[in-house]
Amino acid sequence: MKTTNCKDLGGVCDHELTASSWDEIVKLMYKHVMENHPELANEMEAQHEKDPHAWGNEMKPNWDKAKEVSVTVN
């Protein structure tokens, strides 16, 4: 599991997101942006229409260097 935050993935806040894979963090980030930053969601959608791979190419290195965290399940 890794933890990163909204800003590290191109967002505007320090909300932390934890996931076990790149695909999972993309889904969490999408949900977070849609629910909390609708203005940014519009910008990201426009960028995605221009170049569907731009965001991932830019942000994946941030995910790759995110710190590993251990999660305890009760």
Automatic annotation (TrEMBL):
Region annotation Disordered: where it falls in the sequence: 45-74
One Pfam family it belongs to: DUF1059
Protein name: DUF1059 domain-containing protein
